[in-house]
Design goal:
The complex is a heterodimer of chains A (113) and B (110).
Chain A: E1 5-7, E2 10-13, E3 19-24, E4 31-38, E5 44-50, E6 53-56, E7 65-68, E8 75-79, E9 88-95, E10 103-104, E11 108-112
Parallel strand pairs in A: 2-11
Antiparallel strand pairs in A: 1-3, 3-8, 4-5, 4-9, 5-6, 7-8, 9-10, 9-11
Chain B: E1 9-13, E2 18-23, E3 31-38, E4 45-50, E5 55-56, E6 61-64, E7 70-75, E8 84-92, E9 104-109
Parallel strand pairs in B: 1-9
Antiparallel strand pairs in B: 2-7, 3-4, 3-8, 5-6, 6-7, 8-9
The chains are: A mainly beta (113), B mainly beta (110).
Chain lengths: 113, 110
Amino acid sequence: EAGVTQFPSHSVIEKGQTVTLRCDPISGHDNLYWYRRVMGKEIKFLLHFVKESKQDESGMPNNRFLAERTGGTYSTLKVQPAELEDSGVYFCASSSFAVDTIYFGEGSWLTVV
Amino acid sequence: DAKTTQPTSMDCAEGRAANLPCNHSTISGNEYVYWYRQIHSQGPQYIIHGLKNNETNEMASLIITEDRKSSTLILPHATLRDTAVYYCIVRHNYGQNFVFGPGTRLSVLP
C-alpha cells in the first residue's frame, strides 16, 4: 500500500512567486494534515481536513497560504506570494478514523530566494 | 505548546537498549501517548502509542507509569540506524492534530 506522497520533493523559487505543493494521502484516509518546519524551529501544525472540509486551520500563518482538498482526495497548499520566511519543509500527513494513527509523507522542501 | 518534556539529547551504545523518557504530568484521562521519530530530514515516522497499558510492537516498547504522568520508550537493541530525533506527543484520539516539541536527539554510537 502506498504511503503519503508529496510533490515536489524540492522547490526553489524567487520571492514573490507562487508555489503549489501537492499531497496524496493514504487511500481511504479522511483526515489530512499539513505541517511545516522552518529553519531552526519545531514542526508546527498548519491545518486539518476531514474529507474536503477544513476542520481546523488555526495554524495557517497568514492569507498568503491557501489549502484545498477538492473531492476529499488529494490536497494542495499554495503559497502566493512566497516570502523568504516561508522557506522550510512542508509535511503532509493522513489518518483514518478507524485506525487513528497519523502517517507522514517525506515532505516538500521549499527554498525562497 | 507541547504538553510533554523530554531530554534534549541522549547517547546509546550500539546493541544496547535505548530508554527514552518523557514527562506528561498534565495528561488527561482520554489522551494517548504517541512516539514518533525523525531520521535526518525524512518525514516523522510512527513508532508506537498507548493509553495506559504498556505496549510492544516490532519496533519498540512503551512503558507508561500507573499515574500516566510519564512514559519511557524502549528500543531493545539500538542500531546505528536508530539515530534520530524522537518525539513524545500526547493527543486525544479521533482526528486531533499533533503538537510537536523539540524531542530528544538520540545518537547511537558504535
